[in-house]
Specification:
With 734 residues, the chain is α+β, with helices and mostly antiparallel strands. Helices cover 20% and strands 33% of the residues. The chain is built from 13 helices and 42 strands. It has an eight-stranded parallel barrel with strand order 25-26-27-28-29-30-31-32, surrounded by four helices. A hairpin with a 2-residue loop joins strand 20 (226-234) and strand 21 (237-246). Helix 3 (341-355) packs parallel to helix 4. The N and C termini lie far apart (86 Å). Bound molecules: alpha-D-glucopyranuronic acid. The site of alpha-D-glucopyranuronic acid has 9 residues, from loops.
């Protein structure tokens, strides 16, 4: 029978120019420099080596090694023999070591994450960690065994088709093996067990098993899983055995009414997740995955977009077990590459082959914001068509989807290539007003009422050190993030046609090219900080809207010092009424839903308590005379960038729109230099989007002043004054 041997220990890691160090996998060499800003983390080729004794192999047994994640490309060399090359940093691959094995072995794995023009991702707003950052195992199998090599397959594929009216499921089970005469299949059920024998034809079996009165996989309410065990039989003897969990569910998506699960409306409301953590980078273990899932469950989300690549099998398993519906995707992102098609297709094939049996997954993401840094070319369209066809060939049960950049025209020929679509919108953060989000969707839905549309990303950066009683776009305050999400939550609740919505992002994550909002190397759009523990106030807004466990949360606990006489105290709660007490005395009781705002007079230091039944939360606020400057991200006030007195309206200034300033070649040159500067602190994608014609069209109506305001401290006051002075030298054409 097969043996699975953990193989994470006793590796030597060697980065050129540094002494070799002993490491235990999972490991990444960018855990620190990939999270500290500067866009300078080390990208190159490093090696992992290990000495090991040949495992005992009896009667033709074979020995494979399994890598669950080596980023971004890997070469496997055993005792000097180059055995395999794998391109793609997020999927499992296996290598047959048998022929090259000796009694004592030296295994060398050379791993590379340097930039290239063929392996995705190459441009994106997250750190491309290098290393063998997921588990490694040896798999010893008999001569006849279930398939191990092809696209990292599990060797078994389970396709349940639910008949809701009859309450039955028709479960097609396929297996692949390199020998044996038959496969015995077994599925324990609540009524006993289903057992079938299947003849092997060309190494393949196909068996249909009907589960009567099936126990459905019903999302967070009841994520029931079945397990099918497959035994490979040769001459009546079982020689190999594998098993797969699966769930029986039916889903469909209606352009008007949204997502349906097992016949009932089931709006998908959730968040996105990257696979990293402060100090660990991408080298996570089951412990970290379980902790992240606990945060998802506390939030009350029923869906996760696992961005922008294939995540660890352990995490998809957790989604199956917790009933969380998943959007899975490949890292075909931000910049299309002429030489990238083969790799995109290969990564998609591995994603579907390796993740097909997960009931939690309901769609395959072809790409994310692939038009962010360029235009829609026929080549780009063709690559998407082929990806789409590949998905349908490998999986006829799930739709394909794309996440589009907000500047992509709604009538783009790219959109209808996938079965369904979603948009990433950042109005009210990167540019424009909050109300443009609902305008966008209502226009799209009115223009294409038969198309399924979703909200694949939205979010605002917040640093929990920054606070304001007049929160505004671009101030990175915890309060503005709340204002932003309260607006979006409302528009989502009013638009059931949005098939799925995913907050960008559940956790702050590493984007080494970023340097903004008072932090380097981090995207701070998380509802939870990069430690995956510190929850921002906006986290509790969604918890109040989505979770069932009664609670009350006082917003603003980190905003103690306040200068105003009366201050707003907001409570997020899923209770129907909340009482606010100040210094032990009841101030007011409010009934309502999700958001409970109160106004509290401040005279000194006050103890604030929110109460609803058994639920309580408390904090302290203090009236101060001078603003606590540590709360301010932008140290200088915006308004005095230049003195109104010496402002000549007949000349250009930062008050003019982007459109007007780009008309005049002299002001356009100044603008171009400024845009470079403003996007520099936002990493590669923002830099790439600079030349995006649609983005320029969208920004044309916005004043340079509003964009500078949005760009945080990447443009210091002094520079704004000299910029305006330069523009004021240029007379407007009369
Ligand atoms: C994009 C992109 C994300 C990125 C996000 C952001 O939409 O898809 O990967 O992190 O914007 O700018 O925060």
């Amino acid at each position: 029978m097969r043996q699975i041997i953990p193989f994470n220990d006793n590796w030597n890691f060697h980065k050129p120019g540094e002494p070799a160090v002993a490491v235990t996998l999972p490991h990444t060499w960018n855990a620190i420099d990939g999270q500290d800003g500067g866009n300078d983390y080390w990208r190159g080729t490093a090696t992992y080596s290990k000495l090991f004794a040949k495992p005992e192999l009896k009667d033709g047994e074979r020995c494979f090694i399994e890598f669950c994640g080596a980023a971004m490309t890997a070469d496997v060399i055993l005792n000097g023999d180059h055995l395999a090359h794998h391109e793609g940093g997020y999927s499992t691959f296996r290598v047959d070591l048998t022929e090259a094995l000796e009694e004592d072995n030296l295994l060398v794995v050379s791993v590379d994450n340097s930039a290239n023009d063929r392996v995705y991702p190459q441009m994106a707003d997250f750190t491309f960690y290098g290393g063998i950052y997921r588990d490694v195992k040896l798999i010893v199998v008999p001569a006849e065994h279930f398939e191990l090599l092809k696209d990292g397959t599990p060797g078994i594929k389970v396709t349940p088709e639910v008949r809701l009216r009859e309450r039955d499921a028709y479960v097609a089970v396929e297996t692949w093996s390199n020998g044996g005469s038959e496969v015995w299949l077994e599925i324990p059920t609540e009524h006993g067990k289903e057992f079938r024998k299947a003849e092997i034809g060309n190494g393949h079996t196909y068996t249909n098993i009907i589960l009567k009165n099936v126990h459905l996989w019903d999302g967070v309410n009841d994520p029931h899983l079945y397990t099918v065990t497959a035994k490979l039989v040769k001459n009546g003897e079982v020689v190999d055995e594998i098993s797969a969990r699966f769930g029986c569910r039916e889903f469909h998506i209606d352009p008007e009414k949204g997502f349906f699960l097992n016949g009932r409306s089931y709006p998908l409301r959730g968040v996105s997740r990257h696979q990293d953590r402060i100090g660990l980078g991408s080298a996570l273990t089951l412990k970290e995955h379980e902790e992240d899932m606990a945060v998802v469950r506390e939030l009350g989300a029923n869906t996760l977009r696992l961005a922008h690549y294939q995540h660890a099998q352990e995490f998809y398993d957790l989604c199956d077990e917790n009933g969380i519906i998943v959007w899975a995707e490949i890292p075909y992102i931000s910049k299309h590459m002429t030489n990238g098609k083969a790799n995109a297709l290969a990564q998609m094939k591995e994603l579907i082959t390796q993740c097909y049996n997960h009931p939690s997954i309901v769609c395959w993401g072809l790409s994310n914001e692939i038009t962010a840094s360029g235009t829609v070319t026929e080549e780009l369209l063709q690559d998407h068509r082929e990806l789409n066809e590949l998905c349908h060939e490998l999986d006829s049960t799930r739709p394909t989807v794309m996440a589009h950049a907000f500047m992509l025209e709604k009538d783009s020929p790219l959109i209808p290539i996938a079965d369904i679509a979603s948009y990433n919108l950042y109005f009210g953060w990167y540019l424009g007003e909050l109300t443009q989000n609902e305008q966008f969707f209502d226009e799209y839905h009115a223009t294409y009422p038969d198309r399924v549309i979703g909200f694949s990303e939205y979010g605002a950066d917040a640093n929990t050190a920054f606070h304001s009683s007049q929160p505004e776009k671009g101030d990175y305050t915890e309060e503005y993030q709340c204002v932003y999400h309260e607006h979006i939550l409302k528009l989502i609740e009013e638009r059931p046609y949005l098939w799925a919505t995913h907050v960008w992002n559940l956790f702050d994550f590493a984007a080494d090219g970023r340097d903004e909002g008072g932090k380097k190397g981090e995207n701070q759009k998380g509802l939870v900080e990069f430690d995956h523990k510190t929850k921002k106030d906006a986290f509790y807004l969604y918890k109040a809207a989505w979770s069932k466990e009664p609670f009350v949360h006082l917003c603003g606990k980190r905003y103690v010092d306040r200068v105003e006489e009366k201050t707003e105290i907001k409570v997020y709660s899923n209770c129907e009424s909340v009482t606010l007490c100040v210094d032990g005395r009841k101030l007011e009781t409010k009934s309502g839903r999700t958001v409970f705002p109160f106004t509290v007079p401040l005279t000194g230091e006050h103890k604030i308590e929110a109460v609803s039944g058994e639920c309580r939360d408390s904090m302290t606020v203090r009236r101060v005379n001078t603003p606590n400057s540590s709360y301010l991200f932008r140290k200088q006030a915006v308004i005095n960038w230049f003195d109104a007195a010496d402002y000549d309206p007949s000349c250009y200034s930062i008050k003019d729109t982007m459109g007007a300033l780009s008309q005049n070649p002299r002001t356009a040159a100044i603008l171009g230099r400024m845009m470079k500067r403003m996007t520099a602190s936002r990493g590669d994608v923002a830099k790439g989007a600079n030349n995006n014609a649609n983005l320029q069209k969208m920004m044309a109506g916005l004043s340079l002043e509003s964009l500078i305001k949005q760009a945080g401290d990447s443009v210091p006051g002094e520079m704004i004054r000299s910029l305006n002075a330069a523009l004021q030298q240029i007379k407007k054409e009369s």
